[in-house]
Amino acid sequence: MVNKGRGPVKSPINNAMALAQQYHAQGALDKALPLYEQVLSIQPNHGDALCCLGLLRFQTGDSQSAIALLRLATQTRPMQAKFFYNLGKVQQTLGDIAEAIPAYQRAIDIDPRQPQAYCNLANALQLQGHLDDALKQFERAMLACPTSPLLRTMYLCALNYVPNPDRQAIFIAHKKFGEVFEAPLRPRSKMAGTNAPSQNTAQHSESDHAPTATQRTLRIGYVSADFKQHSVAHFIEPVLAAHDKSKFDVFCYSNNVLVDEVTERIQNQCAHWRVIANQPDEVVAQKIRDDGIDILVDLAGHTPENRLMVFARKPAPVQVTWLGYPNTTGLTMMDYRITDAFADPVDETDELHTEKLARLPECFSCFEPPRESPPVGPLPSPSAGHITFGSFNNALKITPQVIALWSNILQRVQNSRLVLKYQGLDAAFMNGLLREQFSKHGIAPDRLDILGKDLSQVDHMNRYNQIDIGLDPFPYNGTTTTCDALWMGVPVVVLAGNTHVSRVGVSQMQNLGLPELIARDEDDYVQIACRLAGDLEKLAALRGGLRTRMIESPLTNVARFTRNLEAAYQDMWRNHVNTPVA
User: Fold this and answer.
1) Per-residue confidence at 581, pLDDT binned at 50, 70, 90?
2) How confident is the model at residue 6 (pLDDT cuts 50, 70, 90)?
3) Are 300 and 254 in contact (CB under 8 A)?
4) Is the dihedral of CA 480, 527, 502, 394 positive or negative?
5) CA atoms within 13 A on the CB side of 307
6) 221 forms bridges with which residues in the sheet?
7) CATH class belonging to 20-78
8) Where do you find CATH 3.40.50.11380 in the chain?
């Protein structure tokens, strides 16, 4: 067939691949699947199709097929770095860290300029308890990829796990992020911030000029990749539903194309839904300006899939970080960080933030219990014949220091057991690694129950009916996991630190009216756990009343929390309106 000067004709394979990848990126997996299969029926060794189909199989839960396809992709094109990276990513997600590490290393050997490969390699090292090695890996990576905000943001996230942290050094590291990535944008940012109020005012009635600007409906924009089944959703979904729609016009900017039932519920609560995934930062910033947002709220901080570079462009006159990250963003264009006086005591952490700390009067977040929660069962120890401690936290939080302290408790409480539960922990490598680490402290492997992800939320929550006492990790405290445990009647022992990340438990227990569960130091932590284990009558009474205590506490009082949050927003806006433009 002659192509009469109209440029190269795409082959059917290329057309099918392009369309499949488009559907895949949009989350339309059912449409992408047959197209990938069509390509492979014509060309069985098509590396990209093998890789993409492997990722799709993994997304749909067929892990064994995913690994086989990804391995075949690496064999077909052994110099394609992204194939090794994706193989490592799937292996790591499944808990096979031993296999993931060489896959990442091979990807980096092929192409040293791969920020995400470095990040995941460091993460894998951290899971093995080698935080120092992980941080060194990040530092080497930042030298190789100095223009990657992702690398630096993941490095900052890892610093929150450092035991006995140098708070000033960690703050300086966060400020460095702003100096490297925000500074080049500041001239434009200041212009955007100056223009934004007039743009916003123009989209309201003429009566909304300066004299009444503090009283009009405020446009609040929330930016997150976690409007889905995720811990952040437990805290933002109830607020979105409780917002006073007569005073606040709410916009959600979702940095995710995938949709689940939580996403659908949140969409129904939000008058203005915007999908910003895969869109350039400046395009997203302009969209926010066009929407006339008054207060833009970041729900991610330095976590994966954040859009901090949108905030660096100052698309809204007031910008706030909240909920998703337990530290400063390091951005000068982020005006406030929402917290409370328990997690960030007055005058103790203010100078460790580039933002002004906006302390809510009670707690800094409000928890919506899982809709599918079973009843609280009786204290399990009398029928089990032993005390069962438990922690359902992210494996990264189970550091060598945490393992040493929990082992001490198990040694002190005769015949006690410990249940550890998190996605991927039941994989052979992680299971064996944890048992080995505890055995170094004299804890026999058969005293640990190591569980992975349950099929349903009900099954997951019901696991707490096997736990007598929860143990909170440190320095990176649990948040959702602690609330889940408390909701299911399980008291949680927490250790008070000197940073927000290590004082989340303090905030929760103070707001719950249980300061006796807050340990001053590691010895006190052990004493509290042992005292609880030795008083079954008190433990049973505490268990029986915890759900009611949660319901009556600020931790689940969505209406009151949202009014406090809205009052903070109104104060922020009032300060903005009343501050002269430089």
Assistant:
1) confident
2) low
3) no
4) negative
5) 33
6) 251, 296
7) mainly alpha
8) 216-366+560-578
State how far the Cα of 245 lies from the Cα of 218, in Å rounded to an integer.
10
pLDDT at 211 over 50: no
- CATH 1.10.357.140 assigned to domain 92-159? The reply is no
SS3 335: coil
**What spatial distance separates the first Cα and last Cα of the chain, rounded to whole Å?**
67
pLDDT band at 188 (very low <50, low <70, confident <90, very high): low
149-184 pLDDT tens trace: 999 999 999 999 999 999 999 999 999 999 999 999
Question: Does residue 89 carry a pLDDT above 50?
Answer: yes
Q: What's the CATH code, domain 381-556?
A: 3.40.50.2000
Are residues 492 and 471 in contact, defined by beta-carbon separation less than 8 angstroms?
A: yes
Tell me the two tokens of residue 573: 């806006």
CATH code for the domain defined by 216-366+560-578: 3.40.50.11380
Where, residue-wise, is CATH 3.40.50.2000 in the chain? Answer: 381-556
User: Which tokens go with 243?
Assistant: 């917002």
**Which pLDDT band, with edges at 50, 70 and 90, does 365 fall under?**
very high
Residue 201 has pLDDT above 60, yes or no: no
State the chain's maximal CA–CA distance in angstroms: 88
In the chain, residues under CATH classification 1.25.40.10 are 20-78, 92-159
Name the strand (E) or helix (H) holding 537.
Answer: helix 536-552
